[in-house]
From TrEMBL:
This is 3-dehydroquinate synthase. Coiled coil: none annotated. HAMAP family: Arch_DHQ_synthase. It is an enzyme of class 1 (oxidoreductase). One of its GO terms (molecular function) is dehydroquinate synthase activity. Keywords: Amino-acid biosynthesis, Aromatic amino acid biosynthesis, Lyase, NAD, Oxidoreductase. It comes from the Archaea.
Length: 374
């Protein structure tokens, strides 16, 4: 999972406060600072990265003067700081090592530190050159997060996309609020998952009696064409549309998906499914649009009520999947043109968009295994 931290070492508290507040509002909640830890914590739920041993993440690397405008930590020294990392880890601390790559030996030192530290923050004058690729490759099997210190969006994009994997995160040092917002948007875009949706042919539609139906209300607004991936079978999920459309019966609820009965699966981040009955306030689910693009949404509320249900069965290339949905005009799937269509109007032969998973599921995770669902 890609992430960003913000460097908050600015002479003026007002400037520092503005930078941190913008970062926090943009979803960046890790701050590197040395002087105003207590004041920063009052601004919100923030993780402090500092040379203070009581910090959330202890930074090994001393405060330096930088370029005179944005002070940065000094780089690691070879022996003393490597020993300090080991000592802090032995005491159960979370540790970030800070290294400025100016020579081949310091590149090697970064790899050494990465075998012990939780995070390695790398500073380089130009990430277009090879050292970053070398360090990423060398540490790919280690349990360490690699962070590149960057001044702007373009450098952040380059670092996050270097090699197939890129760095795990960036440490952004800038006083430009627009750069903070652009980097936050970049990470959100990189982290968004994509699901290849296909048009399945409806083969059966029929009422099946009543059951406990789940409505998932999120803290995000959904547009026309957006919903959630829901289904009774883990191998195939239907794109169930949000209640973002106006109706003669009820007002629109663009934050809501009337998802289906308690047993059904819903797709959540990192290609994992959960039962609708498990979802509660504060959990994360994926909202998905008609193109298969996703966003992570926080659940604000779940409503479970007894409602009449209907069975919908669809087939794609000999793969047959089913789901149950509330039998109501306001519940919609998405057709192959990307348009929402009411379950009250769906009939055999219609095409609806679904996601098919090649693997089975074990505790919500996709696995290579044969499971029969019917």
């Amino acid at each position: 999972m890609k992430f960003a931290w913000i460097m908050a070492e600015y002479p003026s508290w007002d400037e520092k406060k503005g930078i941190i507040t913008t970062a926090l509002e943009s979803g960046i909640n890790h701050v590197v600072d040395f002087d105003d830890v207590e004041s920063i914590k009052k601004l919100g739920n923030i993780k402090i990265v500092s040379d203070n041993k009581e910090a959330d993440i202890v930074l090994v690397g001393r405060k330096g003067e930088g370029d005179g405008t944005i002070p940065l930590p000094d780089s690691l020294s070879e022996s003393k700081d490597l020993a300090a990392i080991g000592e802090l880890k032995s005491k159960g601390k979370t540790v970030a090592a800070y290294i400025e790559i100016t020579s081949k030996r310091l590149e090697e030192l970064a790899s050494e530190a990465g075998r012990t530290a939780d995070y390695v923050i790398l500073v380089g004058k130009d990430w277009k050159i090879i050292p970053l690729e070398n360090i990423i490759a060398d540490l790919q099997r280690e349990n360490v997060k690699i962070i590149a210190a960057v001044p702007d969006y373009e450098e952040a994009r380059l670092a996050l996309e270097t090699l197939e994997h890129g760095t795990d995160g960036v440490l952004l040092y800038t006083s430009d609020i627009s750069q903070i917002k652009k980097v936050a948007s970049l990470i959100e875009r990189i982290e968004s998952e994509h699901y290849n949706l296909v048009p399945a042919t409806v083969t059966l539609v029929k009422p099946v009696g009543s059951g406990d139906r789940v409505c998932v209300d999120t803290s995000s607004m959904m547009s026309i064409g957006e919903g959630m991936l829901i289904g009774s079978y883990s191998r195939g999920l239907f794109l169930v549309h949000s209640e973002s459309m106006e109706s003669e019966y009820v007002a629109s609820r663009p934050f809501r998906v009337n998802a289906g009965p308690v047993h059904a699966y819903v797709m959540t981040p990192n290609n994992r499914t959960r039962y609708l009955s498990e979802i509660e306030t504060g959990d994360e689910v994926l909202t998905v649009d008609k193109e298969g693009n996703t966003k992570t949404a926080v659940v604000g509320r779940v409503k479970i009520e007894k409602r009449p249900l209907m069975l919908i069965e669809a087939e794609y290339e000999d793969v047959k999947i089913r789901t149950l949905l509330q039998n109501a005009e306001t519940i919609r799937l998405v057709n192959e043109e990307g348009e929402p269509v009411s379950v009250a109007d769906i009939k055999s032969g219609d095409k609806v968009m679904v996601y098919l998973d090649k693997g089975a599921r074990h505790f919500g995770m996709s696995i290579e295994e044969t499971i029969i669902e019917k």
